[in-house]
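fyi for ur records
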Amino acid sequence: MKILLVRLRLIGDVVFTTPVIRALRRRFPDAHLTYLVEPVAAPVVVNNPHLDDVRVIPHTRGWRRIRDDLHVGLALRRTRFDLAIDLHGGPRSGWLTWMTRAPARVGYDVAGRGWMYTRIVGRARELRPRHSVLNQWDLLGAVDAALAGPPDPERDRVEMTAGAGARASVGARLAALGIAADDQVVVMHVSAGNPFRRWPEQAFADLAGALAGGGPRRWVLVTSGPSDHDAALRVIAAARDQAPSARARIVDTDGLSLEELRALMDHAALFIGGDSGPLHVAATSDVPIVGLYGPTLPERSAPFRSPAIPTVSVDAGDLPCRPCDQRVCAPGDFRCLTGIPVGAVRDAAERLLEGPPR
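which gave:
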């Protein structure tokens, strides 16, 4: 049996599909599982032990996308999949799923695209407080009745594996910094893919300075996306000004690949960041997490893993405009983010750092 999973676009979205991969492997142990993904999120699944094949489709635009999609679609059809599952629900993923001509094609009931599938699953239109993993899992019930039950965060947690090269690279990088095995490493991600998920730079700087100043064996490693490196440098400079005695332990980690970021989590005592791809990568490890939620809800995207792994979600509380679709800030001041107090995040971080060492 040949099964294709299609999930394009973003890192966190692909992380949320990994419980589905494991469930399919458990139900169909002899199946050949293929995953179709775009380059930015490919590292999430490229080392997944339950997959037989990962195909990476270019993220192109205009006429090049038409050309690339036609080539990919024809290649998928030649593979002769028995089952294709569109975990995305977008027009591109729906068309590629249809192009497989698989006898069974499963997808969401989205207006104008239902004809692309042979089995359709309902999807809520509103932003309700239901985890994204559950939304993905809904599709499994249309595949096999035995898969219709709810996922168990203990058994069906999100996962990502870092390769040996990434693990070795991170180990060498930490050794070069002088970080010992019993030091406390706090990984702080200070950027996000859009302004609706960015906590203010000064808030991150205040937090980094306070945490690094908490002890001589505590390090704060600041990460960011490639386009936000300047913001990370500003955060680091401001944090060092606040905690001059700890300035050598507030470190820029520019240049980490996504796989190396995952490997870094296995050395960290804590991860702090907003609701973006790196938080979801962190969730695939056992690192304690403090997640910052602005327009989004932790009920939808908090770490889906064992409740025994320490996790704290911090937000600005109930606001009439929250959650939102992250297209326009109705009040205009991003109060869902600026309203998250540094003190609350610091208190949560200190509680987790005071817990049993990993």
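DSSP finds 14 helices and twelve strands in the chain. thats all i got for now
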